[in-house]
Amino acid sequence: MSKRSSGKILDIVLAFRPKTLTAALVPIVVGTSLLKMLNLPVHWWISELALAASFFIQIGTNLVNDASDFKKGADTDSRIGPRRITQAGVLTYGQVMGLATLCFLGAIACGVPLVMQGGWPIFWIGLFSVLCGYAYTAGPFPLAYKGLGDLFVVLFFGLIAVAGLIYLQTLEWRIEALILGLQVGLHCAVLIAVNNLRDIEGDTLVHKKTLPVRFGKSFGRIEIAVLCFTPFLFLPYWLHNGGSAFCLLPLGSIPLAVKLVKGVFATEPSPEYNRFLGQAAGLHLVFALLLAVGFTL
After folding, report:
1. pTM, 2 dp
2. What ranges do the domains of the chain cover?
């Protein structure tokens, strides 16, 4: 394989945004651990297929975002975020959208056995997830361009991901899954909030009405702080609903949240926010892993 070809493959893999794929991993890990805490059986094939479907949907969404932002003029040579393959000319708009379609088809293929297990509720959840993954930045009502991206993340990579997994495993809707899904979703939304604050100037030029564009930088910073710290407030819930003191282990990740929030408040939107994006992914992952450990001890 030539150096040019290997470089192109690397660019495509990076377009999947591997540093942010914790958004798909975390709900499955902590959801499965919650079952252990509740002394409920775990069907591993369900968790594995749900994880694969989540990865496919997130990667497909990222690719649609890559292509659509370029087409709408949001990604230009002055972009301060990570390189995008459509804007850089690595692949054409059509090729990126085709790759995204393959990812969504992969999610559907993983979802067929899950629908057979969970019935119509899982069918509608899966269909809605795929459609919204496409509509995040594409279609006649792009969610991210209407300031709904943050809500989309909390809903699909938090509440729906966790509650859907628990339903598949137990065929019951449980309040514990919603609490856990909210914790997971809020921390996941920190990534999109940091991303939106970083890109406020470019998004303003192309009329991408993210929350920082609508309400300003101060709002964007306060949003990040609220999203970072709110999940910690739910930790006592687990002590009163079947958990042990080990469920407080995620308190150990508070320094990560403090460091991220201090950095965002002290720094103007710039390429430095790419580092904050990595910190947000780290907070999301470490909090969830500590909580999963707490559930299983």
Report:
1. 0.87
2. 23-296
CA distances to 56, 291, 293 from 249, rounded to whole Å, are 31, 6, 8
Report the C-alpha gap between 33 and 35 in whole angstroms: 5
Question: What phi and psi, each to the nearest 5 degrees, are found at residue 253?
Answer: -95, 0
Instruction: Report which of 226, 136, 240 is spatially closest to residue 185, judged by C-alpha positions.
Output: 226
Task: Name the CA radius of gyration of the chain, rounded.
Answer: 19
Q: For the purposes of burial, counting CB atoms within 10 Å of the CB of 147, is it exposed (0-12), middle (13-18) or buried (19 or more)?
A: middle
d(CA 80, CA 12): 19
CB contact at 8 A, 66 and 35: no
Please answer whether residues 164 and 50 qualify as being in contact, where contact means their C-beta atoms are separated by less than 8 angstroms: yes
Q: Please, what are the averages of pLDDT over each run of 10 residues along the chain (297 residues)?
A: 64 80 91 93 94 92 83 60 73 87 93 94 90 76 82 91 95 94 96 93 87 95 98 94 89 97 95 92 95 93
